[in-house]
Write a structure and sequence with these properties.
By secondary structure, this protein is of the alpha/beta class. It contains 16 helices and eleven strands.
């Protein structure tokens, strides 16, 4: 076809061009046994349309190529004739490529429909992920639930305030690896003014540099209540609670903390109440989302609760196997105060060599430390640990896929 089209634009005489084309085509059967040399062509024809007709006639007679097989030239003849030629060529193209065109259109439609369905499915799953909490965990108290935005187990300690069950702390020159803890999925950090300036600064830096949003990280800090029966906190004399609160916030370098605790009771209930009221003002000023106490026994709470405007959300106390204050634990539960355990591995029982704890750990294929932490959680409490080792920090977070039975809980409770 390309050779035929070139007949009308090439300046070579028509007879010579046609002869060359026939030689390229090879042996052809000439109708009526007429050699092409005897075909008469009018080489003086100037009109392009007439050239087209002459070439068609020649090709049809000599080569056997019909009119429909010739590509129409771009001629300067009548406009309607040109349009008819273009229409004829387009129809021929559509007819010869009908299967390919229909196949391509079908694939495009299928791809479009599948894309729409995939997008709708993705949006549906995203909506479900944002609105539906994971299934309840076996053995976890009702008060403890999943926070759907943080994807970590939390407990609601006050209205609108959820605190992680697992928290990382550090004390007295032995800080935890706060940055690593946040990187592996931990969200609760614990510190105190009395832990020293470097520890405070390290906690604040970890929060500010974390990839997780600030609202996902829960920061607990503490100020002393002086004068205290724990003399080391106060140096034997009174302290300015407002100044302690301000210094605590300055060292952390944060706009607010999630939980501010009174580190211990003062020597008298009246002194304890004075410090607590200062802390209440921190809540109203937006510098603390919740407040609470630490190292309070049931008797201290009974003295405090009648005079407060903001109830304590948390009581953080020492708790481990062989060292637990069940009276205070039950009183906190009754008063809707979350009980948090610190120093969970430092009781009177050597948890790493106790045969019962070691046997339970082997049964569930976990560490002895994980058994202890699980025992705390199933006692309706949360906890704070300390550590620098990544493996141990990961173990602290991985205590929600096994459940101690009643016999095991009773055995550990009575040690």
């Amino acid at each position: 076809r390309l050779q035929c089209s070139c007949l009308l634009s090439d300046p070579t005489p028509i007879a010579q061009r046609t002869r060359l084309m026939s030689e390229q085509l090879g042996d052809v059967s000439l109708p009526h046994n007429r050699p092409y040399e005897k075909v008469s062509l009018n080489e003086s024809v100037e009109d392009e349309d007439e050239k087209f007709n002459v070439a068609n006639k020649y090709l049809e007679e000599i080569v056997g190529i019909g009119e429909d097989d010739v590509i129409p030239p771009i001629a300067s003849g009548n406009a309607s004739e040109q349009e008819n030629r273009r229409t004829t060529g387009w129809k021929a193209f559509m007819k010869s490529h009908k299967i390919i065109i229909l196949g391509t259109l079908t694939l495009l439609v299928i791809s479009f429909v599948l894309g729409i369905l995939a997008m709708l499915s993705h949006n549906n799953h995203s909506a479900q992920d944002a609105s539906v909490d994971p299934p309840p965990l076996a053995g976890i108290p009702v008060a403890i639930r999943w926070n759907s935005s943080m994807r970590t187990p939390t407990v609601e300690i006050a209205e609108g305030v959820s605190m992680p069950i697992v928290n990382l702390g550090g004390a007295f020159g032995r800080p935890g690896n706060y940055t690593m803890f946040l990187e592996i999925g931990g969200r609760g950090l614990d510190t105190a003014l009395m832990y020293g300036d470097p520890t405070q600064r390290r906690v604040g830096l970890a929060v500010r540099q974390a990839k997780a949003p600030r609202e996902e990280i829960f920061v607990t800090t503490k100020i002393p209540c002086c004068p205290s029966y724990q003399g080391w906190m106060c140096g034997g004399g009174p302290r300015n609670s407002t100044a302690d609160l301000e210094r605590d916030m300055a060292l952390l370098g944060l706009d607010y903390v999630d939980l501010m605790l009174m580190h211990s009771p003062c020597k008298t209930p009246e002194q304890t109440m004075d410090v607590y009221r200062t802390m209440e003002k921190f809540v109203s000023d937006g510098k603390a989302r919740a407040i609470g106490v630490s190292n309070f026994q049931a008797s201290h709470l009974k003295d405090l609760l009648p005079g407060v405007q903001v109830p304590p959300a948390v009581n953080q106390c020492s708790m481990s196997i062989g060292n637990h204050d069940d009276v205070t634990l039950q009183f906190c539960k009754k008063m809707n105060i979350t009980y948090q355990a610190y120093s969970p591995f430092h009781g009177s029982v050597d948890i790493f060599h106790d045969p019962d704890i070691v046997a339970i750990a082997a049964k569930y294929k976990v560490s002895s430390a994980q058994v202890v932490l699980r025992w705390i959680v199933q006692n309706n409490a949360i906890f704070v640990t300390a550590g620098m080792n990544q493996q141990y920090l990961k173990q602290d977070l991985a205590i929600f896929d096994f459940n101690l039975n009643e016999t095991e809980m009773g055995l550990l409770q009575n040690k």
